[in-house]
Structure formats: C-alpha cells, structure tokens
C-alpha cells in the first residue's frame, strides 16, 4: 500500500466516583500517526488530536460528571435507580493511502434518559500538501459542488423509497439541504462518504445516515501523491 501511515491507538479512560459509587465512566481514544516520510506533519496531527482529547476530557467530561452528581442526589432522594453516565469517543481510519489520511470520530454521551446520543466529526488530510482537504480538492472539476452532492443524496433516498426502504423523515428533501455540512465527509477506497447527524434527516433508530458517492461520479476523484 503506497505511502501507508502506521497508526497507534492512544486511550484516556477512568471510572469517576461520588460518595463511593461509580456515577460515570469515560473512554477517549485517539490516533497517533507514524511514518518515515511525513513525520514532521504527523507530529503536528498527533499533537492536535491529543490536545482535542484532553480538551474534551476537561470540558465535556467535567460537565457530564457534574450532571451525574446532581442526578445521583435526585435518584437517592426519590429512591430511583442510579444511572451511570458515560462518555465514549472512538475513531475509525477509513482511508490511509495515496498520501492521504481520512478518519472519523464518534462521540457518544449518555446522560440519563432512554438512550445516549452520538455526534460524528471527521478529517481528511493531504500529506503531500500538508493541509486539510476540502470538498473542492475532492471534486476539483465540478461547478456547484455542494448542489451536485445534495442532489445525489436526495436521489439515493428516493431510490430507497421506491424499494420501500424509507427510514427518513417525510420532509427529507428540505432537511438534506438544510442540514448538509461540507465538512461532514470522509474518504474510503470506494469513494466519498457523506453523513448526517442523528435526527438531522431521520429518527434516532436510523443511526447516522451515510451516503456513498463513488470516485468518478459527480466529479469525485481519489487522492494521488
């Protein structure tokens, strides 16, 4: 595999106690990249992802822990079951070749209630150009790039509706345009995956909707060194 970057997983995790009870636990995973050819750039990315993990620990985890303490006291006072809060951040590297790295993070938080929520965010990096890749880099020959992508996604949804596969809200046409984010994508060996957050265009049970635009379709091109 050309220009392959090795990846080592780093983990921050802890059980958090309050009055001798575990009321919250958290796990934060993030990558550490290793390569002979691009280590100067990768050191910057390693620092970036470590800093982001620590910032999440100091802000989101702290806020959730404070909420868990309040929930604990309320549950004890009303003889309710104790619900253990949780934060879990994991990553998936989806593309690691041709001088490019693409990955996404799923950030899950449970703070009581029927279920937790997952937020996804992603990055795609050009190692040769030492920068984050934007949509214009993936669709360089396509005018009105965003419009083409949105139309492609809507066509995929409509094709699914024709086959009675309809996990989306009735007003999906409006919601796709409204909630489309140009940075909500990552690369795979087959093409570009665009995604929407939970509840953006479909109910919670549908998870995080994803849509593949293959390379060569609507002007999408695979990275090259």
Automatic annotation (TrEMBL):
Deacetylase PdaC domain: residues covered: 23-118
Domain DUF3298: 136-215
Any coiled-coil regions, as ranges: none
Pfam families (UniProt xref): DUF3298, PdaC
InterPro entries reported for this sequence: DUF3298, PdaC, PdaC/RsiV-like_sf
Protein name: DUF3298 and DUF4163 domain-containing protein
Source organism (scientific name): Mobilitalea sibirica
């Amino acid at each position: 595999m050309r220009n392959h970057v090795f990846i080592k997983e780093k983990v921050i995790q802890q059980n958090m106690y309050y009055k001798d009870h575990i009321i919250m636990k958290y796990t934060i995973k993030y990558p550490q990249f290793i390569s002979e050819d691009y280590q100067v750039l990768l050191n910057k990315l390693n620092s970036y992802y470590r800093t982001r993990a620590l910032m999440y620990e100091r802000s989101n985890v702290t806020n959730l822990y404070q909420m868990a303490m309040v929930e604990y006291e309320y549950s004890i006072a009303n003889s309710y079951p104790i619900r253990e809060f949780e934060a879990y951040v994991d990553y998936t590297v989806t593309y690691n070749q041709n001088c490019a790295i693409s990955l996404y993070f799923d950030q899950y938080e449970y703070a009581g209630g029927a279920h937790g929520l997952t937020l996804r965010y992603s990055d795609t990096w050009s190692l040769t150009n030492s920068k984050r890749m934007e949509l214009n880099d993936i669709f360089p020959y396509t005018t009105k790039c965003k419009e083409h992508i949105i139309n492609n996604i809507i066509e995929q949804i409509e094709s699914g509706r024709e086959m009675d596969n309809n996990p989306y809200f009735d007003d999906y046409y409006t919601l796709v345009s409204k909630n489309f984010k140009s940075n909500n994508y990552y690369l795979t060996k087959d093409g570009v995956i665009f995604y929407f957050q939970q509840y953006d265009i479909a109910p919670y049970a549908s998870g995080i909707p994803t849509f593949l635009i293959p390379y060569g379709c609507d002007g999408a091109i695979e990275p090259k060194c």
